Protein backbone atom coordinates (compact mmCIF):
# COMPACT_ATOMS: atom_id res chain seq x y z
CA UNK A 1 0.00 0.00 0.00
CA UNK A 2 1.20 3.54 -0.79
CA UNK A 3 1.92 5.85 2.12
CA UNK A 4 -1.24 7.09 3.79
CA UNK A 5 -2.23 10.74 3.44
CA UNK A 6 -3.22 12.43 6.70
CA UNK A 7 -6.41 14.37 6.14
CA UNK A 8 -5.97 18.16 6.24
CA UNK A 9 -6.49 21.27 4.13
CA UNK A 10 -2.86 21.05 3.04
CA UNK A 11 -3.23 17.51 1.67
CA UNK A 12 -6.55 17.77 -0.16
CA UNK A 13 -4.92 18.02 -3.59
CA UNK A 14 -3.08 14.75 -2.93
CA UNK A 15 -6.26 12.72 -2.45
CA UNK A 16 -7.46 10.33 -5.15
CA UNK A 17 -11.14 10.73 -4.18
CA UNK A 18 -13.77 13.44 -4.65
CA UNK A 19 -12.90 16.37 -2.37
CA UNK A 20 -13.83 20.02 -1.83
CA UNK A 21 -13.37 22.06 -5.00
CA UNK A 22 -14.07 25.30 -3.11
CA UNK A 23 -11.59 27.40 -1.16
CA UNK A 24 -12.33 26.47 2.45
CA UNK A 25 -10.39 29.49 3.74
CA UNK A 26 -13.09 31.77 2.34
CA UNK A 27 -16.03 29.99 4.00
CA UNK A 28 -18.03 31.99 6.53
CA UNK A 29 -20.15 30.44 9.31
CA UNK A 30 -23.92 30.47 9.24
CA UNK A 31 -24.88 27.35 11.20
CA UNK A 32 -24.01 25.99 14.62
CA UNK A 33 -24.66 22.26 14.84
CA UNK A 34 -24.85 20.63 18.28
CA UNK A 35 -24.07 16.91 18.27
CA UNK A 36 -21.51 16.23 15.57
CA UNK A 37 -21.93 12.49 15.24
CA UNK A 38 -21.72 10.20 12.24
CA UNK A 39 -25.28 10.83 11.15
CA UNK A 40 -24.89 14.60 11.00
CA UNK A 41 -21.74 14.37 8.90
CA UNK A 42 -23.24 11.78 6.53
CA UNK A 43 -26.46 13.76 6.17
CA UNK A 44 -26.86 17.49 6.88
CA UNK A 45 -23.16 18.32 6.46
CA UNK A 46 -23.14 16.41 3.16
CA UNK A 47 -26.11 18.35 1.74
CA UNK A 48 -24.36 21.63 2.55
CA UNK A 49 -21.08 20.34 1.08
CA UNK A 50 -22.86 19.50 -2.19
CA UNK A 51 -24.16 23.08 -2.39
CA UNK A 52 -20.67 24.42 -1.75
CA UNK A 53 -19.34 22.23 -4.55
CA UNK A 54 -21.70 24.13 -6.85
CA UNK A 55 -20.33 27.47 -5.70
CA UNK A 56 -23.26 28.20 -3.38
CA UNK A 57 -23.86 28.66 0.36
CA UNK A 58 -20.28 29.66 1.18
CA UNK A 59 -21.63 31.87 3.97
CA UNK A 60 -23.45 28.95 5.61
CA UNK A 61 -20.51 26.90 6.88
CA UNK A 62 -21.00 24.79 10.01
CA UNK A 63 -19.44 25.35 13.40
CA UNK A 64 -19.64 22.12 15.40
CA UNK A 65 -20.54 22.02 19.08
CA UNK A 66 -21.27 19.62 21.92
CA UNK A 67 -22.49 19.84 25.49
CA UNK A 68 -21.38 16.50 26.93
CA UNK A 69 -17.87 15.52 28.05
CA UNK A 70 -17.69 12.70 25.52
CA UNK A 71 -18.01 15.26 22.69
CA UNK A 72 -14.46 16.41 23.47
CA UNK A 73 -12.93 13.33 21.85
CA UNK A 74 -14.70 13.98 18.55
CA UNK A 75 -13.73 17.64 18.70
CA UNK A 76 -10.07 16.71 19.11
CA UNK A 77 -10.18 14.29 16.17
CA UNK A 78 -11.91 16.72 13.83
CA UNK A 79 -9.81 19.76 14.68
CA UNK A 80 -6.66 17.70 14.06
CA UNK A 81 -7.83 17.21 10.45
CA UNK A 82 -9.23 20.71 9.86
CA UNK A 83 -12.81 19.47 10.42
CA UNK A 84 -12.69 17.41 7.22
CA UNK A 85 -14.51 14.06 7.07
CA UNK A 86 -14.15 11.11 4.72
CA UNK A 87 -17.55 9.71 3.81
CA UNK A 88 -17.54 6.14 2.51
CA UNK A 89 -20.67 5.05 0.68
CA UNK A 90 -21.44 1.35 1.05
CA UNK A 91 -23.59 0.44 -1.91
CA UNK A 92 -24.15 -3.32 -2.20
CA UNK A 93 -22.46 -3.23 -5.63
CA UNK A 94 -19.50 -0.94 -4.89
CA UNK A 95 -17.71 1.16 -2.29
CA UNK A 96 -16.84 4.80 -2.97
CA UNK A 97 -15.41 7.68 -0.96
CA UNK A 98 -15.46 11.46 -0.85
CA UNK A 99 -14.12 14.08 1.54
CA UNK A 100 -16.48 16.85 2.67
CA UNK A 101 -15.49 20.23 4.06
CA UNK A 102 -18.65 22.11 5.08
CA UNK A 103 -17.63 22.25 8.76
CA UNK A 104 -14.95 24.82 9.58
CA UNK A 105 -14.62 24.79 13.38
CA UNK A 106 -15.59 22.93 16.54
CA UNK A 107 -16.23 24.87 19.75
CA UNK A 108 -14.64 23.95 23.10
CA UNK A 109 -16.68 21.66 25.38
CA UNK A 110 -17.34 23.64 28.57
CA UNK A 111 -19.46 23.02 31.65
CA UNK A 112 -21.11 26.44 31.39
CA UNK A 113 -21.23 26.41 27.56
CA UNK A 114 -19.81 29.92 27.40
CA UNK A 115 -18.20 29.64 23.95
CA UNK A 116 -21.33 28.01 22.54
CA UNK A 117 -23.57 30.78 23.88
CA UNK A 118 -21.36 33.57 22.55
CA UNK A 119 -21.11 31.96 19.12
CA UNK A 120 -24.87 31.33 18.80
CA UNK A 121 -25.45 34.99 19.74
CA UNK A 122 -23.38 36.22 16.77
CA UNK A 123 -25.54 37.74 14.01
CA UNK A 124 -23.83 35.56 11.36
CA UNK A 125 -25.36 32.46 12.95
CA UNK A 126 -28.82 32.12 11.47
CA UNK A 127 -29.52 28.44 12.15
CA UNK A 128 -28.79 26.37 15.27
CA UNK A 129 -29.27 22.71 14.37
CA UNK A 130 -28.91 19.60 16.50
CA UNK A 131 -28.77 15.84 16.65
CA UNK A 132 -28.92 14.99 20.36
CA UNK A 133 -30.88 11.66 20.21
CA UNK A 134 -34.57 11.08 20.68
CA UNK A 135 -34.34 11.02 24.48
CA UNK A 136 -32.44 14.29 24.74
CA UNK A 137 -35.34 16.76 24.66
CA UNK A 138 -36.54 16.51 28.27
CA UNK A 139 -40.04 15.34 27.47
CA UNK A 140 -42.13 12.92 29.46
CA UNK A 141 -42.34 9.71 27.37
CA UNK A 142 -46.03 9.19 28.13
CA UNK A 143 -47.54 12.68 28.27
CA UNK A 144 -45.07 14.20 25.75
CA UNK A 145 -45.03 17.30 27.93
CA UNK A 146 -41.91 19.17 29.00
CA UNK A 147 -40.21 17.61 32.03
CA UNK A 148 -39.89 20.63 34.34
CA UNK A 149 -38.56 18.49 37.18
CA UNK A 150 -35.48 17.03 35.50
CA UNK A 151 -32.32 18.02 37.43
CA UNK A 152 -30.70 19.46 34.30
CA UNK A 153 -33.72 21.66 33.68
CA UNK A 154 -33.87 22.77 37.29
CA UNK A 155 -30.17 23.70 37.10
CA UNK A 156 -30.58 25.73 33.91
CA UNK A 157 -33.63 27.54 35.28
CA UNK A 158 -31.65 28.52 38.37
CA UNK A 159 -28.44 29.35 36.44
CA UNK A 160 -29.58 30.76 33.07
CA UNK A 161 -26.18 32.32 32.34
CA UNK A 162 -24.23 29.08 32.90
CA UNK A 163 -26.50 26.30 31.61
CA UNK A 164 -25.50 22.67 31.25
CA UNK A 165 -27.93 21.72 28.45
CA UNK A 166 -27.97 22.62 24.76
CA UNK A 167 -31.41 24.14 25.25
CA UNK A 168 -30.26 26.29 28.14
CA UNK A 169 -27.41 27.52 25.95
CA UNK A 170 -29.88 28.34 23.18
CA UNK A 171 -32.03 30.31 25.62
CA UNK A 172 -28.99 32.24 26.88
CA UNK A 173 -27.89 33.03 23.32
CA UNK A 174 -31.37 34.15 22.33
CA UNK A 175 -31.42 36.45 25.35
CA UNK A 176 -28.21 38.08 24.14
CA UNK A 177 -29.61 38.42 20.63
CA UNK A 178 -32.84 39.99 21.89
CA UNK A 179 -30.99 42.45 24.10
CA UNK A 180 -28.68 43.39 21.20
CA UNK A 181 -31.64 43.63 18.77
CA UNK A 182 -30.05 41.04 16.49
CA UNK A 183 -33.17 39.01 15.81
CA UNK A 184 -33.69 35.32 16.53
CA UNK A 185 -32.21 32.28 14.83
CA UNK A 186 -33.96 29.17 13.54
CA UNK A 187 -33.78 26.08 15.75
CA UNK A 188 -33.58 22.99 13.52
CA UNK A 189 -33.94 19.55 15.06
CA UNK A 190 -32.49 16.70 13.00
CA UNK A 191 -33.51 13.93 15.41
CA UNK A 192 -35.97 11.10 14.81
CA UNK A 193 -38.92 12.59 16.64
CA UNK A 194 -42.46 13.02 15.37
CA UNK A 195 -42.88 16.77 15.16
CA UNK A 196 -39.25 17.38 16.10
CA UNK A 197 -39.47 21.11 15.47
CA UNK A 198 -42.57 21.43 17.63
CA UNK A 199 -40.81 19.49 20.38
CA UNK A 200 -37.72 21.68 20.12
CA UNK A 201 -39.89 24.80 20.38
CA UNK A 202 -41.65 23.32 23.42
CA UNK A 203 -38.35 22.56 25.16
CA UNK A 204 -36.69 25.92 24.47
CA UNK A 205 -39.72 28.10 25.20
CA UNK A 206 -40.71 26.13 28.31
CA UNK A 207 -37.18 26.32 29.70
CA UNK A 208 -36.98 30.07 29.02
CA UNK A 209 -40.30 30.61 30.79
CA UNK A 210 -38.87 29.19 34.02
CA UNK A 211 -36.38 32.05 34.35
CA UNK A 212 -37.63 34.83 32.03
CA UNK A 213 -41.28 34.77 30.87
CA UNK A 214 -40.81 37.84 28.67
CA UNK A 215 -37.91 36.17 26.88
CA UNK A 216 -40.02 33.04 26.40
CA UNK A 217 -42.72 35.14 24.71
CA UNK A 218 -40.09 36.82 22.50
CA UNK A 219 -38.63 33.46 21.43
CA UNK A 220 -42.07 32.04 20.72
CA UNK A 221 -42.93 35.04 18.55
CA UNK A 222 -39.63 35.50 16.71
CA UNK A 223 -37.71 32.21 16.49
CA UNK A 224 -38.79 29.46 14.13
CA UNK A 225 -38.54 25.72 14.65
CA UNK A 226 -39.30 23.85 11.40
CA UNK A 227 -40.21 20.20 11.56
CA UNK A 228 -37.99 17.91 9.53
CA UNK A 229 -37.62 14.26 8.59
CA UNK A 230 -34.09 12.89 8.21
CA UNK A 231 -32.95 9.52 6.92
CA UNK A 232 -29.59 7.90 6.22
CA UNK A 233 -28.11 4.86 7.95
CA UNK A 234 -24.63 5.74 9.23
CA UNK A 235 -23.19 3.01 11.49
CA UNK A 236 -20.81 3.64 14.34
CA UNK A 237 -17.12 3.90 13.43
CA UNK A 238 -14.76 1.14 14.55
CA UNK A 239 -11.57 -0.54 13.33
CA UNK A 240 -13.19 -1.87 10.16
CA UNK A 241 -14.44 1.57 9.15
CA UNK A 242 -11.06 3.18 9.85
CA UNK A 243 -9.47 0.48 7.68
CA UNK A 244 -11.83 1.30 4.81
CA UNK A 245 -10.51 4.87 4.74
CA UNK A 246 -6.97 3.51 4.58
CA UNK A 247 -8.00 1.43 1.56
CA UNK A 248 -8.51 4.78 -0.20
CA UNK A 249 -5.11 5.97 0.99
CA UNK A 250 -6.56 8.28 3.67
CA UNK A 251 -5.63 8.43 7.35
CA UNK A 252 -8.90 9.71 8.87
CA UNK A 253 -9.60 9.20 12.58
CA UNK A 254 -13.24 10.25 12.17
CA UNK A 255 -14.30 8.47 8.99
CA UNK A 256 -18.02 7.87 8.45
CA UNK A 257 -19.58 5.00 6.51
CA UNK A 258 -23.13 5.26 5.23
CA UNK A 259 -25.63 3.65 2.93
CA UNK A 260 -26.33 4.83 -0.62
CA UNK A 261 -29.56 6.55 0.40
CA UNK A 262 -30.45 9.92 1.91
CA UNK A 263 -33.69 11.76 2.48
CA UNK A 264 -34.38 15.13 4.11
CA UNK A 265 -37.85 16.68 4.19
CA UNK A 266 -38.12 20.09 5.85
CA UNK A 267 -40.77 22.72 6.54
CA UNK A 268 -39.75 25.96 4.83
CA UNK A 269 -39.97 28.03 8.01
CA UNK A 270 -36.66 29.82 8.61
CA UNK A 271 -36.77 33.21 10.31
CA UNK A 272 -33.25 34.26 9.25
CA UNK A 273 -32.82 32.59 5.88
CA UNK A 274 -31.48 29.18 4.86
CA UNK A 275 -29.30 27.41 2.29
CA UNK A 276 -30.99 26.13 -0.87
CA UNK A 277 -30.79 22.51 0.25
CA UNK A 278 -33.53 21.59 -2.22
CA UNK A 279 -31.07 22.26 -5.06
CA UNK A 280 -29.12 19.17 -3.98
CA UNK A 281 -31.94 16.77 -3.20
CA UNK A 282 -33.68 17.87 0.00
CA UNK A 283 -37.44 18.41 -0.11
CA UNK A 284 -39.29 21.39 1.34
CA UNK A 285 -42.86 20.42 2.20
CA UNK A 286 -45.85 21.73 4.12
CA UNK A 287 -46.65 18.15 5.12
CA UNK A 288 -43.50 16.87 6.80
CA UNK A 289 -45.73 14.94 9.19
CA UNK A 290 -46.75 12.43 6.50
CA UNK A 291 -43.15 11.77 5.48
CA UNK A 292 -41.92 11.47 9.05
CA UNK A 293 -44.80 9.17 10.02
CA UNK A 294 -43.89 6.80 7.19
CA UNK A 295 -40.20 6.85 8.06
CA UNK A 296 -40.48 6.69 11.85
CA UNK A 297 -43.09 3.94 11.83
CA UNK A 298 -41.68 1.72 9.10
CA UNK A 299 -37.92 2.31 9.45
CA UNK A 300 -37.37 3.36 13.07
CA UNK A 301 -40.01 1.11 14.59
CA UNK A 302 -38.84 -1.56 12.15
CA UNK A 303 -35.36 -1.32 13.65
CA UNK A 304 -36.85 -2.21 17.03
CA UNK A 305 -38.74 -5.14 15.50
CA UNK A 306 -35.36 -6.59 14.50
CA UNK A 307 -32.79 -5.44 17.04
CA UNK A 308 -34.14 -6.87 20.28
CA UNK A 309 -34.66 -10.40 19.02
CA UNK A 310 -31.35 -10.12 17.16
CA UNK A 311 -29.56 -9.37 20.42
CA UNK A 312 -31.18 -12.28 22.23
CA UNK A 313 -30.29 -14.69 19.43
CA UNK A 314 -26.73 -13.36 19.13
CA UNK A 315 -27.05 -11.81 15.67
CA UNK A 316 -24.55 -8.98 15.43
CA UNK A 317 -25.99 -6.78 12.70
CA UNK A 318 -29.29 -5.70 11.20
CA UNK A 319 -28.40 -7.31 7.89
CA UNK A 320 -27.81 -10.63 9.70
CA UNK A 321 -31.29 -10.30 11.18
CA UNK A 322 -32.73 -9.85 7.69
CA UNK A 323 -30.82 -12.92 6.49
CA UNK A 324 -32.46 -15.01 9.25
CA UNK A 325 -35.52 -16.45 7.50
CA UNK A 326 -37.78 -16.53 10.54
CA UNK A 327 -36.88 -13.02 11.71
CA UNK A 328 -37.28 -11.54 8.22
CA UNK A 329 -40.69 -13.22 7.89
CA UNK A 330 -41.67 -11.81 11.28
CA UNK A 331 -40.49 -8.36 10.18
CA UNK A 332 -42.47 -8.50 6.94
CA UNK A 333 -45.68 -9.65 8.59
CA UNK A 334 -45.61 -7.04 11.36
CA UNK A 335 -44.87 -4.33 8.83
CA UNK A 336 -47.60 -5.26 6.38
CA UNK A 337 -50.38 -6.23 8.79
CA UNK A 338 -49.92 -3.92 11.78
CA UNK A 339 -47.62 -1.01 10.91
CA UNK A 340 -48.57 -0.07 7.34
CA UNK A 341 -52.31 0.33 8.17
CA UNK A 342 -51.31 3.34 10.32
CA UNK A 343 -49.26 4.99 7.56
CA UNK A 344 -50.57 7.12 4.67
CA UNK A 345 -48.95 7.37 1.26
CA UNK A 346 -46.69 10.34 0.48
CA UNK A 347 -46.01 11.83 -2.95
CA UNK A 348 -44.23 9.16 -4.98
CA UNK A 349 -44.32 6.41 -2.35
CA UNK A 350 -46.96 4.05 -0.95
CA UNK A 351 -46.46 2.30 2.41
CA UNK A 352 -46.01 -1.03 0.60
CA UNK A 353 -43.31 0.43 -1.65
CA UNK A 354 -41.56 1.99 1.34
CA UNK A 355 -41.57 -1.33 3.23
CA UNK A 356 -39.89 -2.99 0.24
CA UNK A 357 -37.31 -0.19 0.15
CA UNK A 358 -36.56 -0.63 3.87
CA UNK A 359 -36.24 -4.41 3.50
CA UNK A 360 -33.65 -3.83 0.77
CA UNK A 361 -31.76 -1.20 2.80
CA UNK A 362 -31.74 -3.29 5.97
CA UNK A 363 -30.46 -6.30 4.00
CA UNK A 364 -27.34 -4.50 2.71
CA UNK A 365 -24.47 -6.63 4.08
CA UNK A 366 -21.96 -3.80 3.63
CA UNK A 367 -23.76 -1.73 6.27
CA UNK A 368 -22.41 -3.05 9.55
CA UNK A 369 -25.17 -1.54 11.69
CA UNK A 370 -25.06 -3.47 14.95
CA UNK A 371 -28.11 -4.73 16.76
CA UNK A 372 -26.59 -3.27 19.91
CA UNK A 373 -26.51 0.25 18.45
CA UNK A 374 -30.04 -0.02 17.13
CA UNK A 375 -31.33 -1.46 20.41
CA UNK A 376 -29.72 1.31 22.47
CA UNK A 377 -32.09 3.50 24.52
CA UNK A 378 -35.09 1.27 23.98
CA UNK A 379 -37.00 3.10 26.69
CA UNK A 380 -37.05 6.13 24.37
CA UNK A 381 -37.26 4.29 21.06
CA UNK A 382 -40.12 1.99 21.97
CA UNK A 383 -42.15 4.81 23.49
CA UNK A 384 -41.38 7.08 20.54
CA UNK A 385 -41.55 4.66 17.62
CA UNK A 386 -43.52 1.50 18.47
CA UNK A 387 -46.13 2.39 21.07
CA UNK A 388 -47.85 5.13 19.03
CA UNK A 389 -48.51 2.51 16.33
CA UNK A 390 -49.85 0.13 18.93
CA UNK A 391 -52.22 2.82 20.25
CA UNK A 392 -53.51 3.55 16.75
CA UNK A 393 -54.09 -0.15 16.07
CA UNK A 394 -56.02 -0.54 19.34
CA UNK A 395 -58.12 2.54 18.66
CA UNK A 396 -59.02 1.18 15.24
CA UNK A 397 -59.87 -2.25 16.67
CA UNK A 398 -57.14 -3.97 14.66
CA UNK A 399 -54.66 -6.68 15.66
CA UNK A 400 -51.70 -5.92 17.90
CA UNK A 401 -50.40 -9.50 18.11
CA UNK A 402 -47.15 -8.71 16.31
CA UNK A 403 -46.52 -5.47 18.15
CA UNK A 404 -47.16 -7.23 21.46
CA UNK A 405 -44.54 -9.79 20.42
CA UNK A 406 -42.10 -6.94 19.65
CA UNK A 407 -42.59 -5.63 23.20
CA UNK A 408 -42.19 -9.11 24.68
CA UNK A 409 -38.90 -9.51 22.81
CA UNK A 410 -37.70 -6.20 24.23
CA UNK A 411 -38.60 -7.38 27.73
CA UNK A 412 -36.69 -10.60 27.09
CA UNK A 413 -33.63 -8.68 25.88
CA UNK A 414 -33.65 -6.44 28.95
CA UNK A 415 -33.24 -9.51 31.15
CA UNK A 416 -29.62 -9.13 30.11
CA UNK A 417 -28.71 -12.56 28.75
CA UNK A 418 -28.84 -14.16 25.32
CA UNK A 419 -30.24 -17.61 24.69
CA UNK A 420 -26.69 -18.93 24.53
CA UNK A 421 -26.09 -17.67 28.06
CA UNK A 422 -23.83 -14.75 27.14
CA UNK A 423 -24.38 -11.39 28.80
CA UNK A 424 -26.08 -8.42 27.14
CA UNK A 425 -24.32 -5.41 28.60
CA UNK A 426 -26.27 -2.40 29.88
CA UNK A 427 -27.75 -0.60 26.88
CA UNK A 428 -30.24 1.97 28.16
CA UNK A 429 -30.11 5.01 30.47
CA UNK A 430 -32.50 3.16 32.82
CA UNK A 431 -31.06 -0.33 32.24
CA UNK A 432 -31.02 -1.30 35.93
CA UNK A 433 -34.74 -0.58 36.26
CA UNK A 434 -35.55 -2.37 33.02
CA UNK A 435 -33.49 -5.43 33.97
CA UNK A 436 -35.10 -5.71 37.37
CA UNK A 437 -38.57 -5.58 35.84
CA UNK A 438 -37.61 -7.95 33.03
CA UNK A 439 -36.50 -10.60 35.52
CA UNK A 440 -39.72 -10.22 37.48
CA UNK A 441 -41.80 -10.32 34.28
CA UNK A 442 -40.43 -13.76 33.41
CA UNK A 443 -42.86 -15.18 35.95
CA UNK A 444 -45.34 -12.28 36.07
CA UNK A 445 -45.58 -10.48 32.69
CA UNK A 446 -47.75 -7.73 34.11
CA UNK A 447 -44.73 -6.33 35.96
CA UNK A 448 -43.23 -5.20 32.67
CA UNK A 449 -46.38 -3.46 31.47
CA UNK A 450 -46.84 -1.72 34.82
CA UNK A 451 -43.90 0.57 34.01
CA UNK A 452 -46.14 3.60 33.87
CA UNK A 453 -43.65 6.04 32.32
CA UNK A 454 -43.30 3.68 29.37
CA UNK A 455 -46.69 2.10 28.83
CA UNK A 456 -49.15 4.38 30.62
CA UNK A 457 -52.72 3.29 29.95
CA UNK A 458 -51.63 0.48 27.62
CA UNK A 459 -51.20 -1.86 30.58
CA UNK A 460 -55.00 -1.84 30.89
CA UNK A 461 -55.67 -2.59 27.22
CA UNK A 462 -56.81 -6.21 27.22
CA UNK A 463 -55.93 -7.15 23.60
CA UNK A 464 -52.39 -5.89 24.13
CA UNK A 465 -51.74 -7.09 27.68
CA UNK A 466 -53.19 -10.55 26.95
CA UNK A 467 -51.09 -10.97 23.81
CA UNK A 468 -47.98 -9.64 25.56
CA UNK A 469 -48.38 -12.12 28.43
CA UNK A 470 -48.89 -14.99 25.99
CA UNK A 471 -45.79 -14.15 23.96
CA UNK A 472 -43.48 -13.46 26.88
CA UNK A 473 -44.51 -16.71 28.56
CA UNK A 474 -43.86 -18.60 25.32
CA UNK A 475 -40.48 -16.89 24.81
CA UNK A 476 -39.25 -17.90 28.27
CA UNK A 477 -40.63 -21.45 27.91
CA UNK A 478 -39.70 -22.28 24.31
CA UNK A 479 -37.36 -19.57 23.05
CA UNK A 480 -37.66 -16.57 20.75
CA UNK A 481 -37.65 -18.48 17.49
CA UNK A 482 -40.58 -20.67 18.55
CA UNK A 483 -42.61 -17.55 19.37
CA UNK A 484 -41.74 -15.98 16.02
CA UNK A 485 -42.75 -19.12 14.13
CA UNK A 486 -46.04 -19.29 16.03
CA UNK A 487 -46.79 -15.70 15.06
CA UNK A 488 -45.72 -16.02 11.42
CA UNK A 489 -47.62 -19.28 10.89
CA UNK A 490 -50.84 -18.01 12.45
CA UNK A 491 -53.13 -17.15 9.58
From TrEMBL:
Superkingdom assignment: Bacteria
InterPro entries, sorted: 6-PGluconate_DH-like_C_sf, 6PGD_dom2, Mannitol_DH, Mannitol_DH/Oxidoreductase, Mannitol_DH_C, Mannitol_DH_N, NAD(P)-bd_dom_sf
Question: What transmembrane ranges does the database entry give?
Answer: none
Q: Which residues form the Mannitol dehydrogenase N-terminal domain?
A: 30-278
Q: Which Gene3D superfamilies match?
A: N-(1-d-carboxylethyl)-l-norvaline Dehydrogenase, domain 2, NAD(P)-binding Rossmann-like Domain
**What range(s) does the Mannitol dehydrogenase C-terminal domain occupy?**
287-471
Give the record's keywords alphabetically: Oxidoreductase
Q: Does the keyword Mitochondrion apply?
A: no
User: Is Oxidoreductase set as a keyword in this record?
Assistant: yes
Which Pfam family is one of this chain's hits? Mannitol_dh
For this UniProt entry, which residues form the secretion signal? none
Q: What is this protein called?
A: Mannitol dehydrogenase family protein
Task: Tell me which species this is from.
Answer: Ruegeria atlantica
